[in-house]
Each structure stands twice: as structure tokens, then as C-alpha cells.
Amino acid sequence: MISLSTVNTLDSLALNLNQSLDALTRESTLLVSDARTNLNKLGLHTDTMIIESTGHIAEISTKINASLDGINKLINSEEFGLLVTNIGALSGQLAKADFVAMVNNLSSTVQRTGTLVNTVNRTILRNQDNIMETMDNLRETSNNLNEFSRQIADNPAVMLRGN
User: Which of the chain's ends, N or C, has fewer CB atoms near its CB within 10 Å?
Assistant: First the structure.
């Protein structure tokens, strides 16, 4: 049978995971908001991509929150108590598990994820001018191709003899 302290440790682990995921969701939402503001400057074509990405992120965030609600309901259910009772044979192995190390690893993972989010944000901000320059170059190239196409349509012989 699993001891009360093991169950408390599991509850604490679930609570820490829930809090970490909520914090990650909040940071992700803030990052999306900042990214949206910066990317609006890139032009009409990128607006569609940003809107789609934001929708996907919001959908994933909603799914994560729904999953967390389901996990909380499961943990607090009577069935979970029965499940814990039925796995009494494994209590010796669970007692040997190093929950402190797992919590530390989870905390480290959450910190690394936060660092990754910050790095992505800085990268977007740092490359904003390069992206704008690339968009300008693409517009100019498109104009040149349109002019070339117009010249060929007006006078196909230009292909053979040049201007």
C-alpha cells in the first residue's frame, strides 16, 4: 500500500507540474502577443501566417488547459484512490524512486523552456530588420519579373535579339 507521504508527494508533483504549465502558458501567450506586434510590420503576406500560428498556439493552449483539468479531476476522483490501493505491490519500488531528483529535473526543464522562449523572442527582434529587407528585395524582384514578362508579351522577339 502506498504511504500517505507518497500520495502527498505525488499531489505536490502534480501541483508543481500544473503551476509550471500555467506559467509556461502565460509566458507563451505573452510571447505570441509580442511577436504579433513585431510581425505586423512585415507586410500583408505575413499577417495570414501570424494569424494561423496564433490560432494554433491558442488551440494548443486550450488543449493543455483542458488536459490539466482532466488530470486534476482524475487525481481527485475515487477511482484514482482505488488505483493507488491496487498498485500496493509496487509501493516498494515507488518508495525507492527519487522524487526530489524528478522534481528538480522537471524544474530544470521548465527553466530551459523559459530560456528557449526568451531566445526565440530575442532572435525575432534581432532579425526584424533583416526580414524587412528581405521582404523589400522580394517586392523589387517581383517588380523586375513583372516588367520582364510585360516586355516579352509586348515583343516576343526580345528573347532572341535582346533590347
Answer: C
Low-confidence stretches of the chain (pLDDT < 50) are none
Q: pTM for this one?
A: 0.29
Dig out the grid coordinates for 60 from the structure.
494548443
Output the nine-digit C-alpha cell for 158.
Answer: 526580345
pLDDT of residue 64: 83
CA separation for the pair 113, 5 (Å, rounded): 30
Q: What pLDDT is attached to residue 40?
A: 66
Domain spans of the chain? 4-127
* Contacts within 8 Å (CB) and 24+ apart, 133-142: 135/42, 135/43, 135/45, 135/46
Rounded Cα–Cα distance for residues 38 and 97 (Å): 46
